[in-house]
Amino acid sequence: xxxxxxxxxxxxxxxxxxxxxxxxxxxxxxxxxxxxxxxxxxxxxxxxxxxxxxxxxxxxxxxxxxxxxxxxxxxxxxxxxxxxxxxxxxxxxxxxxxxxxxxxxxxxxxxxxxxxxxxxxxxxxxxx
Length: 128
Hints:
By secondary structure, this protein is an alpha+beta fold. It has one helix spanning 30-62, and strands at 94-99, 118-123.
């Protein structure tokens, strides 16, 4: 330790951790590096998610995720055609539809029915 004489003043001490007494600055490129690394991580995660999604979808289509004993859905019979939206006299006629449900049998652990559940057709395109 430094000993002082009675009439001697202690030497000035520099601010702690900053001997030059200059404001501290980060390197100018630090922010840019952080941004580049963040973008790289986001892109990497996006690619990983896309790869996992493709792998999962391919396995699901192959039937790897269907449990044994699963029941795939089947279509019911088509219902009757609905009443036509017009009786006559409209150019192009009217419309009617019919529908079916995925309930013969209901899917239980298996795939939902493929295809459409509703059909539409023209009707009454005759003059009055």
